Amino acid sequence: MKESIIGSLYCPECREILECEVSRIERGEIKEGALICNNCFKRYPIRNYIPRFVEEDNYASSFGFEWNKHVRTQIDKFNGTNISRDRFYRETNWNPKDLKNQKILEAGCGAGRFTEIAIETGADVYSFDLSNSVEACLSNNGLAENLHIFQASIYELPFQKEYFDKIFCFGVLQHTPDVRRAFLSLVPYLKSGGEIVVDVYRKSLGSYLSPKYYLRFLTNRIDDEKLHRIVTRMVPKMLPLSIGLRKIPVLGRYLSYAVPVANYKGVLPIKDENLLEWAILDTFDLLSPKYDNPQTITTVKDWFIEAGLINIQVTTHGVIVGKGTKAYVGGIDRMNLLHSMKCF
Question: Is the CB of residue 164 less than 8 Å from the CB of residue 103?
């Protein structure tokens, strides 16, 4: 943790500013220590450079397991693709030249696939995750000068309100127990005039025909290590079957869809030798989460309206992508807000 952000961190419990007790400094950062609240007497440890505001055992533990198991799989600089970069800019539509020195909050960093893209812009990036995947994010991105990693709950963040110029949250909301509350929990930390972009799985009849929703009744009750061993054994058999079925004219796509394996052949620009690794990772990702709550476009639009955001855009890119701007205080009333929305 950088000493420069001491004084910017607040107790998630009582909202009082935290003081820092330093035990060890290495490489110019606080490696070990604690953040202390003198109001409610809570102590939050700093371990391996990362402030920890939650317990290690939580509902996102499967994600911590998978990202520490597959640390580099989806990181552009290691897999030789621009998959994460393209998705980041497609969904945000942000100009990297405009992000320099802005404060950006990344909600749910995982192994840091989008963290890498954000820090390259020169923005001051604050990345957190509920799980211990923060360790993988640190491993992939190091102690970058403009990066702050912390472990926290999306529902209880350790910052003052209206602190960030930009907020993004990709691949996370559907895996929270209360998706609406998770989204609304982020908005207060956005400055007036700031932008928030989120994505979430789309709810449809087709989505519930996915075999993962039937299998997860069993698989998310299996220990992560054991489930990963099962997936590692089964995917090498299922992936060729899925690829073969997809070649059948007309019906092939639907037949392939019935095979419970993540098949990116011809879908993403992944080298053939890396397809199996991606398939194992994302098949585990399909089957292991405790929560998987897809949403409708209408529901996502309603969240943005409820949050009082303007310039709202809700689109689909496979997943639902929502984007909005926080109105300046006193700058717009309710009627004007409704007229200012652009929903697609």
Answer: yes
**Statement: residue 334 has pLDDT above 70:** no
Task: Report the C-alpha gap between 205 and 182 in whole angstroms.
Answer: 24
| Residue with token string 């992936």 | 239
The beta-strand segments (E) located in the chain are: 19-26, 29-36, 43-47, 50-51, 103-107, 124-129, 147-151, 164-169, 190-200, 309-317, 319-326
3-state SS class at 46: strand
Q: Residue 265 pLDDT more than 60?
A: yes
3-state SS assignment for residue 67: helix
User: How many CB atoms are located within 10 Å of the residue 257 CB?
Assistant: 16
Residue 33: closest CA among 18, 15, 49 = 49
Residue identified by tokens 């991105």 is 141
Q: With 90 as the cut, is the pLDDT of residue 330 above it?
A: no
Beta bridge partner(s), residue 309: 326
pLDDT at residue 41 greater than cutoff 80: yes
At residue 32, the 3 state secondary structure works out as strand
Distance CA 344, CA 341 (A): 10
Helix, strand, or coil (residue 216): helix
Read off the pLDDT of each residue in 256-268 and give the average, rounded to a whole number.
94
Query: Radius of gyration of the chain from Cα atoms?
Result: 21
CA distance 329 to 192: 7
Residue 109, pLDDT above cutoff 80: yes
For 223, list phi and psi in degrees, rounded to 5: -50, 140
Residue with the larger pLDDT of the pair 155 and 318: 155
* Percent of the chain residues past pLDDT 90, beyond the cut: 88
